[in-house]
Amino acid sequence: MPTIVADLIDRALAGFDALAATAEPVADELQYVTDLDTVWRARLRAVAAARGTEPAPPGAEAALDALVEEAGRITDPHRAIDWLSTLPQVALAALGEGA
Amino acid sequence: MRFMEARPDGRAIVYAHIQADPLVARAAGLLAGATTVQRLLARAAMNGESTDPATWRTMFPTLFGPAAPAPGDPVRDRSEAILQASLLVADRGEQTRSQFRGAIVEALTERLLAERAGPEPVRRERRILFDGRPAEIHPYDVTVERDGAGEAWDCKWGARGIKADVLHQLDDARRGAADENLKLVVGLVIFDARRSCEVRLVREKGPVALDGLKLIALEGLDRLAGRRPA
Questions:
Q1: Does the pLDDT at position B41 exceed 70?
Q2: Which residues 135-194 in chain B show a CB within 8 A of chain A?
Q3: In terms of domains, do B131 and B62 share one?
Q4: Domain of B159: which CATH number?
């Protein structure tokens, strides 16, 4: 059974959650982290709603796996905040979507 | 309204060495002609952990996958060159690469503005003085100095760099020009997604009227050059 877009969005969101947890110690940026979470989660979910049952585009599954793995390597909370913006953009690009 | 050279402090002198590094000019040159996804590759790789190019090629199938242009195609070659330059930046160590990234965004902005306005009026690290107003201490990253069509831009690597003091300084310059019946375009160039910039702006704006401020995010960088986004 081919991987569908919704599966890859779920993986991206799992990577996003891990980054949010890494970013948590930066108390001054809690509001920004929350805001990023709100807008990017909504954007990713909108793609899942529109294209969720489509087969994943060529290369997208490996791309998302590499992306989530890279996000898991981020241990610095400040860099994790930056990656909370980067990860969804890269995930969307792999799925052929704009940010 | 007058533009003038900023007096370099200690930080500026150190930073000038970064700005003059050939890697900054190389990266800016590559990114000036890049697509949005190629610019996103640079953003991710310059601030990533992995230094293996294969990891990044896998992560960007539209640039390096089977459906991407073949090696030897100019678009593919640019993707490879951007990846190589980005990993060189990433390899510099945490503090240095942060400075490189900032310098690259400034150099990229300068190139794109020069494409539209010509190289002569585009300047770096300049202060703007207004009659009867105290001068701001911090210089503007890039200015376009033309009679009746001045511009002042602050450049940031990420949306998190948008802070209240930055917005206040840009707004102050715009209002100073308006008081002298002059037009000054002020704005932010952010090497990050517009979506992230907008949520940051809303929280940081304070009393600043955002309708007087231009926001150029990663997806819209070509607008600085007067081009439509690639």
A1: yes
A2: 157-160, 192-194
A3: no
A4: 3.40.1350
The verdict on B199 touching A (C-beta cutoff 8 Å) is yes
Closest residue of chain B to A73, computed from CA coordinates: B49
Is the pLDDT reported for residue B137 higher than 90? no
Interchain contact, B55 vs A66, CB within 8 Å: yes
Number of domains into which chain B is organized: 2
| DSSP, res A4 | B
Q: Are residues B117 and B200 in the same domain?
A: yes
Residue B225 CA to residue B161 CA, distance in Å, equals 23
Phi-psi region of B226 (alpha: psi -120 to 50; beta: other; left: phi over 0): left
Give contacts of A70 with chain B, Cβ < 8 Å: 44, 48-50, 55, 59
Question: Are the beta carbons of A24 and A36 closer than 8 angstroms?
Answer: no
Q: Provide the residue range defining the domain that includes B29.
A: 10-98
Q: What is the structure's pLDDT at B230?
A: 66
